[in-house]
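[09:14] KT: can someone run the structure on this one? pasting the chain below
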Amino acid sequence: MLVFSLLSMSIPVSADTPSTTISLDKSTIVLTVGQTDTITATVLPAGAADQNLTWISSNPNVVKVFNGLLMALNEGTAYINVMNPSGNSSYASCYVIVKKPDSTMEINKSSLTLSVGSTETLTVSITPSQAVHWTSSHPEVVQVFNGVLMAQKLGTAVITATAADGSRSVTCTVTVNDAPTSITLNKSTATLGIGKSSTLTANISPALPTNAYLMWQSSNPGIVSVSGGVITGVSLGTAVITAIASDGSSSATCKVTVTASGVNPIRLGGSNRYETSVQIAKQGWPNGSAYIVLATGNNYPDALSAAPLAQKYNAPILLTDKTLPQVTLNEITRLKPTQIFICGGTGAISKTIENQLNGMGILTERLEGKDRYETSVEIAKKLGSGSGELVLVNGYEWSDALSASPIAAQKGIPILLTDKSTFPDSVKSFVKSNSFYTTYVLGGTDLISNQVKNQLPGSVRIDGTNRYERNINILKKFEDSLDLEKICIATGADFPDALSGSVLAANLSTAIVLVDNASLKSVTTQYVTNSLQQTNDVYVFGLQGVVSDTVVNKLFAN
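[09:31] RB: done, structure tokens below
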């Protein structure tokens, strides 16, 4: 390839022929892609023939030249050479630099979702302004006409917009679904107090078209107002909150009730402890259960460890008297179990009851020991110890075990009983034979001494001045793992209702708050005020005589 100087040059042919030279008016030019320019050539001496000048580009892919007219095609460099082949040969050159145009190109959507049959419009901004060519990678899925999309069938297509000069392009990935957008809310029902607020969240799938948005409406703003999903109780009554797509394609509703207490009380109770346990079972196991845990309603020790076992087998806890109450028998018939776990020895639940159950075609398994401590070990063995955690309670204080029962049940943690000052051999042997790394010791040294606590792996004490304070401190310890949009309430005066309700609370992923029906404790009301402001459903175990509506209203009216 010839390399030409940037300067004009002449080459004499013979001594007796006049010298001819060619010069250009520009030695260097900078252009952008798409631009044109003109170079003028001068031939000396004056009058020398110049009509036969030949123009050549060293890189015509970058710059083309026609009789001195330059056209910049692509980024790069080239020499423009001019010569006069007739007579004396002379040459001149101009160095041309071509740059990309200083332009921008943007598309309003890089991805979107459409349903079959729907349309959408894409727009492109491009500087300097020029035409845009649109293409679809799969026109059978999405067709495009000047940026207007038409969803044809399920699939994905890449829509490409290309500048007319070919210098750049932008894309949008379009997914086509077979169904129009659906909207679901995190709640279908909610309860508020006057002046109290909660937030509804909408799940939209697939996404709304870009020309649509979500609107919120209240059927009665005088009862419940709504703004961006935040609902507020205005006055007593009921209103329906609707989340609706602005194009009317889909919607979802939530029925909101404004009450004096601000919660929805669900009372599960009967005329006695046996009927209450049945009402709890009906609530939690409406379609029956393959397993049941049976405990005596007359004393608590043998059943304090039962909730984690019941949760493992998704079984309700039913209570029995010395003979099987008819209400309990009827519930067993309704549940249609194949197996019943009997907690405790024949002193707690008689052999007669066991035979009665076997006669109904139900397999029974009795979990018992020589005392309450060994019985807790036998239940723990049936549960298994895979969690690596352990709950230890005083075998003569039922409230701590039942405060922890729903939490232990959710986590699969065994509950073991101990004496205050002496660590029972059966419990000690079980602990040593398993790989526990954390032990939750419930109660102060007046319930479990340090001598006992120090024999346990990774022991953590959860204390309180009374059963109500310990109940709240246990809830606080595990609060992050609880769903506190629901809570259970039981009397702290006796064990049966909390025992029966412990597995239902576990199924609801929540806990039990123990209350004094005669005089609410400040530690309880403070916890409800600080931690249960978003609680919606309150499951109350027992009738008015054990947990009154007045107590529930006082708890949640703060």
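[09:33] KT: thanks! Confidence is low (pLDDT under 50) at residues 1-17.
[09:34] RB: yep, looked fine to me
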